[in-house]
Amino acid sequence: MAAGQQAQVAAAAAAKMMRMNAEAAQSLVAVVQESAQNLQVLVAEGTGGNLDITV
Known about the structure:
Mean pLDDT: 86
Number of domains: 1
Number of helices: 1
Structural class: mainly alpha
Shape: rod-shaped
Order of helices and strands: H
Low-confidence stretches: none
């Protein structure tokens, strides 16, 4: 009976860790997507495209 309880606790812990890993991956994807969107906005605005370096 004790071995069964240990296996159940281990399975619950593994499931929680998998959920945490999935949430972390989702957060990383969200950050990457937001960064890509910000970069597209900067490119669309022409940032740095018309830099005047005459002296």
